[in-house]
Amino acid sequence: MNKAMKFILCFTSIAVIATLVTTFEVFYFGESSKPKKSDCIIVLGCQVYGTTPSPFLAWRTEHALKLYKEGYGKYIIVSGGKGQGENISEAEAMKRYLISKGMEASKILVEDKSASTMANLINSKAIMDQKGLKTAIIVSNKYHLKRASLMAKQQNINGSYSGVFVTPYKHHEFIGYIREIPALIKYYLVKLL
Predict the structure, then answer these.
(1) What is the rounded CA–CA span in Å between residue 21 and residue 39?
(2) Whose CA is closest to 26, among 191, 190, 193, 182?
(3) Full residue range of the structural domain in which residue 171 is found
(4) In a domain, 44, yes or no
């Protein structure tokens, strides 16, 4: 076997192993994460259709409300800016949703400037610092939690994690898992370089 073939074989083996390990990490973290009683609950943004939360965003927000009602947090930080095709920010859509379900507006903290998961967490941490909140539960889809946890640690957020799996949209969820694997590998590679 010549050197080029050895290199290709070695590279392919490393790529396959990295993909398998990352796949396991994404699935295991999403399934095993459990919320801990915290000062606040951060809901990571997702698409809004005009002024209506997408099913993924509605499920995330509903899950955060459930945790809040069960005493897991004193505040909910709704996090997400206004994206293309959205008439209001993701944070505003979540706030309206929570108020429509009977939550007090004073317990909803709005972060409406971010356009990425990292920005969600940076801006939410700034709100936590302003309010003297030390701990958080981070809510997203299960497939998203592993990468969100790494970013939260980078921002020194003392967090636990709780995810949703939007059952009526299983196909979209599985696509989310597939897309998350290269996204997490990219995150690791950027951190290494």
Answers:
(1) 33
(2) 182
(3) 20-192
(4) yes
The alpha carbons of the chain give a radius of gyration, in whole angstroms, of 18
pTM for the structure as a whole: 0.91
Query: Residue 42: which CATH number?
Result: 3.40.50.620
Residue 7 lies in a domain: no
pLDDT attached to residue 3: 80
Domains in the chain, number:
1
178 phi, psi to nearest 5 deg: -65, -45
DSSP string, 139-188: EEEGGGHHHHHHHHHHTT-EEEEEEE--GGGHHHHHHHHHHHHHHHHHHH
Mean pLDDT rounded to a whole number for the chain: 94
